[in-house]
Amino acid sequence: MKANVWTGRNRLEIQDVPDPQILNARDAIVRVTSTAICGSDLHLVDGYIPTVKKGDILGHEFMGEVVEVGPGVRNLRPGDRVVVPFPIACGACFACEDGLYSLCENSNPNAGMAEKLMGHAPAGIFGYSHMLGGFPGGQAEYARVPFADVGPVKIEDGLPDEKVLFLSDIFPTGFMGAEMCDIKPGQTIAIWGAGPVGQLAAASAFLLGADRVIVIDRFPYRLRRAQRTGAEVLDYEEVNVLDALRDMTGGRGPDACIDAVGMEAHHPTPAMYAYDRGKQAARMETERPYALREAIMACRNGGVVSVIGVYGGFVDKFPMGAVMNRSLTIRTGQCHVQRYTGPLLDRIRAGEIDPSFVISHRMPLSEAPRAFELFKNKQDECNKVVLTP
Amino acid sequence: MTDRFARALGWTSLALGTAQLAAPRALTRLCGVDDAPAATTVARLVGGRELLHAALLLGAKNPAQWAWTRVAGDTMDLGVLGRAAANRTGTRRARALCALGAVAGIAVLDAVCARRGTAKAKGPLLVRASITINKPREEVYRFWRELENLPAFMVHLDSVRTLDQRRSRWKAKGPVVDLEWEAEIIDERAGDLLAWRSVPGTGVSTAGLVSFTDGPGGRGTVVDVSLEYGMHGRKLAAAVARMFGEHPEQQVRDDLRRFKQVMETGEVVRSEGSPEGHRALRQLHQRPAQPIGGRA
User: Fold this and answer.
1) Which residues form the domain of B17?
2) pTM for the whole thing?
3) Which intervals hold domain Alcohol dehydrogenase-like N-terminal (chain A) (predicted)?
4) Is B74 domain-assigned?
């Protein structure tokens, strides 16, 4: 089959690889019908997530048709249409029983690797480094889906791929980012990053009752997309974000701040950017945490900082004094997708939201390397790419 | 205690080495060798060597054994100072003899520390690991007590055959030769614990204890495993570990992780990067994350 393979830092190739086979009784093989490129894939391609290996198939947002199931899968049959959540979860361990699916204790066969970097290991994730399992991703014609009796969501009513594909990651991720803010009526939520996750976090914040949402970015076309959710926007290259947020919130700051940027943020001041960029290039720091630092400084006293942007390792100059002295709550996590797929599918069915509004490009899988270029370099107003094998 | 002794020697090395590098002339004068043309260079080299001792004694997890490097250094110093004393007269000779005496005294301390360290390293090897399994205690115990189940998650075992209620025959794969030994259960409390040891004279000397307790708040079962490899078994365990490239402690932890997977999900979880499931060695040599192809 054809698959999008990482062959080195900033190098991707469409290669012919063997077709997947059932390895565990609870596996299913899915013929991928739609798959997407995620902002977090860029961290892998750029080489900032440790333990990515040449030959790895990328992609953790995908859906398709079941073509084969292992003897342990009773709820799916060949021909079923499914959306596959990006964290792999067994459904039976302590974490899964608590709804913390992205922390499944059984789905990461390389847990020992992750423990060295993070103390304890999170769940396995499709196409997301070897310390998160060494599972091939879904930017391919076929994919093996472990614990197929737990994660995949059956789509039975003919909803088109584009409406439900993002249940695999970015819609639940944006939604969880907003949910972690514990939004109450009248509240203002600020979101760093107007990418697809930031846009869906903005839409979710409104669904959850936010009064105002303010989205911060530097790309006008992305800010325009965020505006369509009803959010106000700030271009951090035009205004001082901390001052602007203070002015917009009566001097108090947003009630909650969402970091939808993660480890490769930018800073308008060249010297500030150079400081962390240099350290990151020298591998003295894995992150460029400008958005996170600013979200912490901006948040009102006693507010929530919700982190859904991806971080890989260690942050320098972390404003812990602000967090502690101002009673901030930091909430974070890889999304526990399986917890949200049912309720969010219901919202899509009910017409409350159509997450396909984030799509800007539709391309064949064979053009994945070019699609990554467009997406990474923000060319052609690229916002979200859907690939079809 | 031995470790604290070794660390103290490490700090001494650090102080002496720093002094020798910073003020080599003062040291050569103190030892009465300041008249030799190469004296400061030698003092600096010896200072560098002292820093090496310091790094080993202060950085190592089990420092005492590394005191042997100090013993070797002392021998070298004694030789140099002995020759210096023999070739000199007057105050210089007296100073060299004083230094010789001091080094001899230190050498005794170093040797004592190093011997204790070696003795400690040769003692039985103890390995402990623990995991929480989200299943009732009875069920977890029953699976383990059925010893023939063990190879399902202990990858180094080929088979376990029960001979009677107490005795069983174990076979392990080795890359070169297969190992076989007999074990007997020496204590058993149904649902609580199981202790066994290898039968003397069957080639391997090992003993183990596994205990099962209810998890906090009644959530799952905590499984604690302690293994001991005796003098003979220790060498064997180390050899096997070296052949597989894994530390015995890693092996036990990996075994428990797979045990948890078998109990909670029905089997060992595999990925394309780690097709055999969780295993330390495989984590160092991952397959790429793409389908395996060919062999099913």
Assistant:
1) 2-122
2) 0.88
3) 26-153
4) yes
Asked if A92 is an interface residue toward chain B (Cβ–Cβ < 8 A), one would say yes
Biggest distance spanned by C-alpha atoms of chain B: 85
Pairing of strands A11-16, A56-57: unpaired
- Of B122, B140, B164, the last residue of a domain is B122
Establish if A7 touches chain B: CB-CB under 8 angstroms: no
CA distances (Å), A24 to each of A63, A353, B265, B271, B293, in order? 20, 36, 10, 9, 15
CATH topology of domain A2-169+335-388: Quinone Oxidoreductase; Chain A, domain 1 (3.90.180)
Whether residues B150 and B138 share a domain: the answer is yes
Using a CB-CB cut-off of 8 Å, the residues of chain B touching A56 are 288-290
Residues B136 and B238 in one domain: yes
- Using DSSP's 3-state secondary structure scheme, residue B109 falls into helix
Task: Evaluate whether A126 touches A137 at the Cβ level (below 8 Å).
Answer: yes
- List the beta bridge partners of residue B228: B126, B207
Q: Are the Cβ atoms of A72 and B270 closer than 8 angstroms?
A: no
A53–B134 CB contact, under 8 Å:
no
Q: Which ipTM value was assigned to this complex? A: 0.92
Q: What does the DSSP assignment read for A156-200?
A: -S---HHHHGGGGTHHHHHHHHHHTT---TT-EEEEE--SHHHHH
| CATH T-level topology, domain A171-332 | Rossmann fold (3.40.50)
